[in-house]
Structures are given as structure tokens and as C-alpha cells.
Design brief:
Elements (H helix, E strand, L loop, with lengths): L8 H9 L4 H12 L3 H23 L6 H10 L13 E10 L18 E6 L3 E9 L5 E9 L10 E6 L4 E3 L1 E3 L2 E3 L6 E8 L3 E10 L2
Parallel strand pairs: 1-10
Antiparallel strand pairs: 1-2, 2-3, 3-4, 4-8, 5-6, 5-9, 7-8, 9-10
Helix pairs in contact: 1-3
This protein binds zinc ion.
């Protein structure tokens, strides 16, 4: 392979989802069988990750946008494909409540001086509780924990990474069940929480008031 792959991630996604014309499908299939590694890697990733994401998306009535998928692809790059690829389960957490929004649970908490901004996200199994407090220089402290939905068990993650909109990654310090980030700029981030066999992704985590 010498030429750069002519297809975008979105093209490959359409192909994977069957949203291309038969002629286009044939063209892409020929291209892949000619040995494009870039396409092959994307498709292996889509086959292993998308079913779980679609399932989570349906349960949470989220729409998983192409933009979200592209970001997920950046967060969870395809590993080298072996004969028996280990499938990791990926759940997309949905927003349950955010005390910056009016009329939701915890509304009014902002009026308590010093009360942190708080947002809760949920997967089928876990609640993710995220809190923010102003730090110096206009930045924000962000910290949180993952717990069972009855609130009785906390689950200490192996790693927690925040990904900025320009794909910059910031690792959290994990102290038992609580994870905390160094002061960060306000903005919209993706959060990936990893356990040994399971990842939870929070899309569109808004930092800052
Ligand atoms: Zn290609």
C-alpha cells in the first residue's frame, strides 16, 4: 500500500452500517481486500465496540453521533488484531442529573455557598458521580467516583482519563474509589473509566459553570 486511504472514518462507518449504495459497498470491499490496514483496523474496532455502544445507546435513549463515535475511536484505539481478540465491554453512561440545570433533582444546591457542581451519570450497572469546584486561575477541580446503583458498593477503577475536544488526554489520580484530576480548563470533555474488563465512557462532560 502506497497511496493514502481515500476513505474517512465516516465512510467506513457507513459501510459497516450498510448505509452505502451497492456500488460503493463493492468499491470499499475491493479496497479493503487489496490490503488497506487503516480500513481493516477501523472495521475490526467497529465490529467489536459498536454492538455494545448501540445497546447502551438504546437503553439510555441516547443517539450516538458520528462525532461521539470518532471520539470513542480516539479514546479506545484498536489493538493489534490477533486470532482471538479479547473483547472489552464498553458502556456509554447517560446523564441522569446535573445541578446546573433548573428543575432537576438537586436544583438549588448551587445557592448553597461552596456547594460543588454535581452531575450524575448512569450505565445499566453503575452510577458515576462527578463533582466540580472552582480552582485558581479560572480552572476547575474535577473529581468523582463510580458506585453500584444502590450506592452500597464503590468500584475503584484501574484508570480514568479525560479527553479534551482537541484529543488531549489528562489522567486522573485514583485514590481508592475516588478519582481526581489536576485543575483543568472549563470545556466539554469525554471521560473514560477503565476496569480490567470493562470501560465506561461519559460523552459531553461539561466542566465549568
Ligand atoms: Zn482504506
Amino acid at each position: 500500500m502506497s497511496a493514502k486511504c481515500p476513505y474517512t472514518f465516516a465512510n467506513r462507518l457507513d459501510y459497516h452500517e450498510g448505509n452505502v449504495s451497492p456500488a460503493m459497498a463493492q468499491e470499499i470491499a475491493n479496497h479493503i481486500s487489496s490490503g488497506c490496514n487503516e480500513c481493516a483496523r477501523s472495521l475490526v474496532w467497529m465490529r467489536s465496540v459498536l454492538p455494545a455502544m448501540h445497546e447502551s445507546a438504546m437503553m439510555g435513549q441516547l443517539s450516538v453521533s458520528q462525532r461521539a463515535l470518532k471520539r470513542a475511536f480516539a479514546i479506545m484505539p484498536p489493538k493489534v488484531v490477533r486470532e482471538n481478540p479479547i473483547k472489552r465491554a464498553v458502556s456509554v453512561a447517560r446523564l441522569l442529573m446535573d445541578n446546573r440545570s433548573n428543575g432537576m433533582a438537586f436544583a438549588g444546591a448551587r445557592d448553597l455557598s461552596g456547594a460543588p457542581l454535581r452531575a450524575m451519570y448512569q450505565t445499566d450497572e453503575l452510577d458515576i458521580d462527578m463533582m466540580q469546584e472552582p480552582a485558581s486561575g479560572g480552572k476547575w477541580h474535577l473529581f468523582g467516583e463510580a458506585m453500584s446503583q444502590d450506592g452500597e458498593d464503590v468500584f475503584s477503577p484501574d484508570s480514568v482519563v479525560l479527553i479534551s475536544s482537541d484529543s488531549h488526554q489528562i489522567g486522573a489520580e485514583v485514590d481508592d474509589a475516588e478519582f481526581s484530576f489536576p485543575p483543568i480548563q472549563s470545556g466539554t470533555y469525554s471521560l473514560k473509566i477503565a476496569w480490567d474488563d470493562h470501560d465506561v465512557v461519559v460523552e459531553d462532560l461539561v466542566v465549568g459553570a
